[in-house]
Amino acid sequence: MDAVIFDLDGVLIDSEQVWDEVRQSFAAAHGGTWTDTATRDMQGMSTPEWGAYLVEAVGVRLEPEEASAGVIAEMEKAYAAHLPVIPGAVEAVRAVASRFPVAIASSAPAVLIRVFLDVTGLPVPVAVSSEECAAGKPSPDVYLLAASRLGVPAASCYAVEDSTNGLKAALAAEMTVLAVPNPHFPPAAEVLEQVRVLGSISELPDALA
């Protein structure tokens, strides 16, 4: 294998609950009604996709671009107060980066990926947001773009994921997929059956040995 590509939310930062709380609060403040499926539906969506979803499915009374910009601004405030880095994540990435080229392929907007990298100082030369792609996860686009920017074939990459849509995206990119299941929003069992499952991100360096 030639490289390791990490998802961000749920793999390196415990942010899925933060996203959920911020979106729900924002939706309520702008005329929306949260649905039972909204949280899982939006996992993996690119910024334009979930901005449109908030308007069309949740009923937020703004334009999609206004909705996404408002949520991202609230996320920046939340991260400024506390960046919820998952225990062992920084050490795991450093250990892996000492042996492989590494990248991040995330549905998070580029500005939030940059906050994470600035705070942690991690040596990640390639960071791709699905904002840059035609479609978010479960489409493989963001993984394929990350592999391309690393200059390696997608099939020669490990991908590290936590969610159903993220796992589907990495599998569709024909990568070797390792799952660190999100405890708050567990991935679908039928998807986990197709990948190698780790108990925590701290297990990753040894899993790649």
Automatic annotation (TrEMBL):
Source species, domain of life: Bacteria
TM segment ranges: none
Database matches in PANTHER family: 2-DEOXYGLUCOSE-6-PHOSPHATE PHOSPHATASE 2, PSEUDOURIDINE-5'-PHOSPHATASE
NCBIfam families: HAD-SF-IA-v3
Protein name, as recorded: Haloacid dehalogenase superfamily, subfamily IA, variant 3 with third motif having DD or ED
Native source organism of the sequence: Lentzea jiangxiensis
